[in-house]
């Protein structure tokens, strides 16, 4: 056997070993990635809720994800409301912000029946008239809004949302934040 043939044989074996090691690493990496994306049933239910929000689902479609239309929605800085009140308010936001999106960092079940949506940030462009509560209507401004982050906690029951708690991580969140960012004022009208 010639020297070049000897080297060629060694080179093929070395290449085969490197390829085998690389394939094993790829398989291990794929398994690790798969482990990271596995979701619990409750986390998947919340993920479905967030997807419904982003596709601008109907009130009925959103309410099906709650245990009832009277499921409690609790804010850290405002009075509580029902699920029906929340999804009706969100639908109102869709009318004023046609490209409204709910972006978040992660969804995870932190303990059985408790799901956390981390760093929710809502964005949208004010393309139609928008009104919040009983305050004056703000005509279209075409302003793009970026709300402050929020943290959402969901208490789950039988794979549905039993309670939602919303924690603002800034001052401009939710419909009031949207209203302020497009030029609205949250002051009572002047008395005559």
Automatic annotation (TrEMBL):
<keyword id="KW-0175">Coiled coil</keyword>
<feature type="coiled-coil region">
    <location>
        <begin position="11"/>
        <end position="48"/>
    </location>
</feature>
<protein>
    <recommendedName>
        <fullName>SnoaL-like domain-containing protein</fullName>
    </recommendedName>
</protein>
């Amino acid at each position: 056997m010639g020297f070049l043939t000897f080297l060629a044989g060694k080179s093929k074996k070395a290449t085969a070993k490197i390829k085998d090691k690389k394939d094993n690493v790829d398989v291990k990496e794929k398994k690790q990635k798969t482990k990271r994306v596995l979701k619990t049933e409750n986390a998947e239910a919340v993920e479905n809720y967030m997807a419904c929000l982003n596709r601008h689902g109907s009130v009925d479609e959103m309410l099906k994800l709650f245990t009832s239309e009277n499921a409690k929605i609790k804010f850290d800085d405002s009075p509580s409301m029902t699920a029906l009140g929340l999804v009706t308010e969100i639908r109102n936001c869709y009318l004023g912000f046609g490209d409204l999106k709910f972006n978040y960092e992660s969804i995870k079940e932190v303990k059985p029946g408790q799901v956390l949506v981390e760093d929710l940030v809502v964005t949208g462009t004010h393309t139609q008239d928008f009104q919040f509560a009983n305050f004056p209507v703000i005509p279209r401004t075409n302003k793009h809004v970026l709300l402050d982050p929020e943290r959402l906690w969901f208490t789950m029951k039988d794979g549905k949302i039993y309670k939602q708690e919303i924690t603002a991580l800034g001052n401009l969140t939710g419909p009031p934040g949207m209203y302020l960012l497009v030029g609205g004022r949250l002051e009572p009208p002047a008395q005559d």
